[in-house]
Specification:
Number of strands: 6
Oligomer: single chain
CATH superfamily: Aldolase class I
Largest sheet: 6 strands, mixed
Number of helices: 6
Strand order of the largest sheet: 3-2-1-4-5-6
Helix content: 25-40%
CATH architecture: Alpha-Beta Barrel
Length: 124
């Protein structure tokens, strides 16, 4: 029935650590330590793509986890998609230029539909 689907594991990053939120609440939750190690464990388990979420970016609008995200992209050899805190075309282009394969746009794209077209001009 679902033979053509792929499970994409997520690594949520807050304050430079891999975390699992409880009920979507920004504080609390369970910490799993180094997000690079978490990403490597998923790839070792057979993940063909990783979904990363910069929780500080999502909640605060700041890309505070850029270094951790960049280390993951440099370390794993599977495509990486990223969401959280991507508010501008410049943010998206920067991430794509740094090796992120896909950016996930939420509120920013809804509030400014031209944003997608701006990104597509340089990263079709």
């Amino acid at each position: 029935m679902f033979s053509g689907f792929e499970v994409i594991p997520a690594v949520d990053v807050r304050d430079g650590q891999a975390v699992q939120l409880v009920g979507g609440e920004r504080h609390g939750g369970r910490e799993y330590g180094d997000p690079v190690a978490a990403a490597e464990r998923w790839v070792a388990a057979g993940a063909r793509t990783l979904h990363l979420v910069d929780l500080d970016g999502a909640f605060e609008g700041e890309r505070a986890n850029a270094a951790a995200i960049e280390r993951i992209v440099e370390t794993v050899d599977v495509p990486v998609q990223l969401g959280g805190g991507i508010r501008t075309a410049a943010d998206a282009r920067d991430l794509l230029d740094r090796g992120v394969d896909r950016v996930i746009l939420g509120t920013a794209a809804v509030e400014d539909p031209k944003l997608v077209a701006e990104i597509d001009e340089t990263h079709p």
